[in-house]
Amino acid sequence: MQMAESLFEQYLERSEHTLVAELYVASSFYCACKVNGAGIDPTEVASIGPAIVKRKHLLQRAKQIATTLGLDPSAFFDPIQYVDRYCEEMELDDDIRDAAHAMLETAEEKAITSGKPPSALAAGAVYAAALREDRQVNQEEVSEVANVSTVTIRKRYKELLKASSDDGLFEYEAGVEDLCEKLNLSSTVEQESKRVLSELFSTIDARSTDTMPRIAAVVHSVCLEHDETVTLEEVSSACDVPVSTITGGKDSDLQDLID
């Protein structure tokens, strides 16, 4: 709070504009949080103030304060601070936090983070890292903590996985998610299907098989194992793969991993 007060006083001295006190106090508080590496979203700051403090206005004034006082602009766009907070609130292991950090660093190196909200990038990274570390986390949990929609999390998570995957596993993971969404399957089936495909991917046979038939075979087999009612015909229609091809993909290696 001391830093927030200091920033507000400094800006007050240098500003030639008439200030709306509540708005600038909230904006100063937001700037202080960012400079100190606190992963707080502007919506959260705006929601604790009076009606006059809107997210859009808060960000505009925060930018004015940062520019006027020469604050480090990178502090406002760093998703790492959000990752740490989300992992702490969700009680996720350090391995997941570190994996999310690594994904974001890779994404930044490949220039795919530009123009994207840091909170959304962090949410996508946490979800993607949890999948890679075989931790049962669903998008709704991340969405609630991060205040980011599940649609946005899906977009960011896929981008981050693709950027961090050098072996093509991303295509399988993204395919599972799309198929499960079309069939309205549970997160348990989705997570287990991704786990199975991840293990299958290390074999030569899995690499040489067309992506979608293998995905369809895995998802349907996992559904049967978890007593989720979905027919081969429904899977076939959802992914545009013949039933005979899906059945042919259910080899002994697949059944061993599911059993």
List keywords for this structure.
elongated, single chain, 259 residues, mainly alpha
- The secondary-structure element order is HHHHHHHHHHHHHHHH
Gyration radius, to the nearest Å?
Answer: 23 Å
Number of strands: 0
Tell me the span between the first and last alpha carbons: 56 Å
Structural topology:
Blueprint: H1 2-14, H2 21-35, H3 42-47, H4 55-69, H5 80-89, H6 94-109, H7 118-132, H8 139-146, H9 150-164, H10 169-183, H11 187-200, H12 204-208, H13 211-225, H14 232-239, H15 243-248, H16 252-258
Helix pairs in contact: 1-2, 2-4, 5-6, 5-7, 6-7, 6-9, 7-8, 7-9, 10-11, 10-13, 11-13, 13-14
Offer a quick outline of the entry.
The chain is an all-alpha fold and 259 residues long. Helices cover 71% and strands 0% of the residues.
Structure overview:
This protein is an all-alpha fold. Helices cover 71% and strands 0% of the residues. It is built from 16 helices and no strands. The protein has helices at 2-14, 21-35, 42-47, 55-69, 80-89, 94-109, 118-132, 139-146, 150-164, 169-183, 187-200, 204-208, 211-225, 232-239, 243-248, 252-258. Helix 5 (80-89) runs antiparallel to helix 6, helix 7 packs across helix 9 (150-164) and helix 11 packs across helix 13 (211-225). The longest helix has 16 residues, at 94-109. The radius of gyration is 23 Å and the shape is elongated. The N and C termini lie far apart (56 Å). The model has no long low-confidence stretch (mean pLDDT 77).
